[in-house]
Amino acid sequence: MRQLKLSKAFTLIESGPVVLVTTNDGRQDNIMTISWTMVIDFTPVFAITTGEWNHSFAALRKTGECVIAIPTVDMLDKVVGIGTCSGADTDKFAKFKLTPVRGRFVTSPLIKECLANIECKVLDIIKRHNIVVLEGVAACVDAARKEKRTLHAVGDGTFIVDGRKMDRRKMMASKLPYGA
Amino acid sequence: MRQLKLSKAFTLIESGPVVLVTTNDGRQDNIMTISWTMVIDFTPVFAITTGEWNHSFAALRKTGECVIAIPTVDMLDKVVGIGTCSGADTDKFAKFKLTPVRGRFVTSPLIKECLANIECKVLDIIKRHNIVVLEGVAACVDAARKEKRTLHAVGDGTFIVDGRKMDRRKMMASKLPYGA
Asked: Across the interface, which of B14, B80, B151 has its CB nearest the CB of A154?
């Protein structure tokens, strides 16, 4: 994995991929599947929707940190599997044969098998809407990885795979943040 | 356009498509392009990130309503064009040859050319993060439309088009909300 400039990290989330969010409660690593995410600033700041119903939430709140990992289409069954069992009774890294990797700034693990990982600190929790606001403090990507297509959950049990890419950089030049 | 059950409306946003958000300030219709969106509840409730820097924000705040319209890949140049000019000096419906259609519950117009439209009421504005929380009150889709592929902004001026769909309904059965 090579480090990615923080000014580009928002581009890992803006397209709306399903992500895996890891935590460590001081005893065990855990992972949850989240498709309710949003960029809220380029710096980067992200919002995710989660709450008491996710076992990971207690660790996220207690430690004030997590990692957002970006899986790809070849990992779909792991992504769905992780989202349909609980860290309360499952060691998800073991069950889904994923490799925890030590990050630079947080104790939550990166996931080696993912395309990219963003180390995050909790900036705010907006309880009335179950929104957690996260600041990305480091990001890395596996540039050598062949499969780069991410997944987009529809919410009905189906997933859309990234298709072709279209370039409108010139048209958008006036609106792109520096460094993106 | 046919009405869509409100219990399914979150599935229009969960995959993370670029959307067009319309408002009406009492004098003029306006449209903004937004890719920072998130589902926050199935009922449905959505979050979008916007603020004073968007001309539409004043109308959104004043009227407490908007429409989220979902464009498709054939509309990419309109989507980018709408996002790179301002309603302060441009009639975007006229400039981009889009047709405003009257909704059922809000005065913000639906966009006839879009795949789907969700009429929304503002539930909350979280000023410190520029998050606007919206409740969907009606949704409709153009089921007869051939092009159904949506667009996902990467944030660097490129866009990902919906590719193939993968079905994991059986694996996810325990987690799907009723009606989705």
From this structure: B14
